[in-house]
Design a protein that fits this description.
heterodimer; A: mainly alpha; elongated; B: mainly alpha
């Protein structure tokens, strides 16, 4: 049960990360949130995409019966 | 072969086959294909396929999940990223309907590789045709990656030059030729090594005949031998 809660917490964090890096404008990420990491816009989008992929696969893993 | 390597190879084959089908489709439709686009697509599709295969499993159900989620996530990347090519010069695959085209390519490649790996033994003839189809896609994939990388290096990373490097007719002719060579290689009943070596040499000659490029023809030995060897490995593993 504890593992399950941890798994969903990680998925939520990754989903939030994906939302921030994938969808928000470059200036918002860099200047307002201050988490630009010195990277270009497309690199942010790639970070968001990777987080989204892990979150989506995690959700699928969590809901399907194996 | 352990589970990690088996899933890695399974995902690699699906992704490369999908990217090649997609590249041929884009070239036929006059949409730009360049190295960075191919690498990003390869990475995104591979990651979805591999993570699903490794942490959930490999079955037709996971196949449908992968074939739908992979292209949708790639579309999201493409929508939010800045284009690196000039839209006024090149046609980009930005429209939403390309998601369905990508899903179709993914269905062909996922279920082609899945059938090749897990297909029943009573359909050897169909299975051998599917395996030669997958083999031809992988050979063309490695050859195309060589071409794009070569142009990328020689032009100092000029993406507009890169987007003009590939031509549909040449790529498709080579694909058809390699497919026929694969069918012919299957007729060699003797030693598997001799069959693989003959196939690699034939691929190299076919590349030379379609491109008249000696370095590419030499690399063709790798383009032919590597997928042939990898496909001959038993990577069924545990599902």
């Amino acid at each position: 049960m504890k593992m399950k809660i941890l798994q969903w917490a990680v998925i939520l964090i990754l989903a939030a990360l994906a939302f921030v890096y994938l969808t928000l404008p470059y200036k918002t990420v860099k200047n307002i949130l201050g988490i630009g990491l010195g990277l270009r816009h497309n690199d942010h989008v790639m970070i968001g995409t990777i987080a989204l992929i892990i979150a989506v696969v995690g959700v699928y893993r969590g809901i399907v019966k194996r | 072969m352990n589970k990690l390597a088996s899933n890695f190879l399974f995902s690699f084959f699906i992704t490369l086959a999908m990217v090649v089908l997609d590249m041929l489709y884009h070239l036929a439709g006059g949409t730009a294909v360049h190295l960075l686009y191919v690498l990003v697509k390869f990475f995104v599709i591979f990651l979805v396929t591999f993570l699903t295969a490794h942490f959930v499993g490999r079955s037709t159900r996971e196949g449908w999940f992968t074939t739908i989620s992979g292209p949708i996530i790639f579309y999201l990347y493409y929508r939010f990223a800045n284009p690196t090519l000039n839209r006024e010069v090149f046609v980009l695959d930005e429209q939403f309907w390309f998601v369905f085209a990508h899903i179709a390519m993914m269905v062909i490649s996922y279920f082609g590789v899945y059938y090749f790996v897990f297909g029943k033994k009573d359909s050897i003839k169909a299975k051998s045709i599917v395996s030669v189809f997958v083999l031809a896609l992988l050979v063309i994939g490695i050859d195309i990656l060589y071409q794009l990388t070569y142009v990328h290096i020689t032009t100092g990373g000029n993406e507009e030059e890169n987007a003009r490097a590939l031509h549909f007719e040449k790529s498709f002719n080579l694909f058809a030729l390699v497919f026929l060579l694969g069918l012919a290689a299957g007729k060699i009943k003797k030693h598997p090594f001799a069959r693989g070596a003959a196939f690699a040499a034939a691929v190299s000659i076919a590349i030379y005949l379609t491109s008249f490029s000696m370095p590419r023809a030499f690399f063709g030995i790798v383009s032919g031998a590597l997928p042939y060897w990898l496909l001959s490995l038993n990577f069924r593993g545990k599902r």
